What we know:
Chain A is mostly beta strands. Helices cover 0% and strands 55% of the residues of chain A. Chain A contains no helices and eleven strands.
Amino acid sequence: QKEVEQNSGPLSVPEGAIASLNCTYSDRGSQSFFWYRQYSGKSPELIMSIYSNGDKEDGRFTAQLNKASQYVSLLIRDSQPSDSATYLCAVKTGGFKTIFGAGTRLFVKA
Amino acid sequence: DTEVTQTPKHLVMGMTNKKSLKCEQHMGHRAMYWYKQKAKKPPELMFVYSYEKLSINESVPSRFSPECPNSSLLNLHLHALQPEDSALYLCASSQDPRRHYEQYFGPGTRLTVT
């Protein structure tokens, strides 16, 4: 079982819709959860971090964490073509490492 | 300011060359990281420096040699690389490696080994 799993996609949504990206992780001791956005040929850009169960909202982005289910998600409201990118879920456990999922490719159609 | 800088942006080197990648941050972060990323794959951890000491080496071949001269700088020395080492090399930093802070990435160095 992979430590951090994401659906590779591509996930295609129309402009203005809600995009829902999901991630599961295997280590129950994980404490910190991050979402990065990566455009093709560019480096990952941090868009959200979440540490406790529940929802965290920042603009059009909402991160959701459920530690009991070992599940973290990212919702993007009012999706724009500029949101088209690969979204990486990252999980930090007790050590120095942050484990990245393989990423979900999102396409927002104008 | 969450800026991590990397130089050069692009590097082409032959298999017998020696080159270095540089990374710098002025955020007072005490953890710095090197990642390697191949196309359509997630970043793959190579090294972690915690308070200027090497804390993690993910069984990286010795042709990659990291160095942390001070808390703001991180280098990656390259020697006798193979074509399969061609990738995007990413530097990242975080506030304290022992706690659960975010990592911030630099723009990366696109390395091509010929």
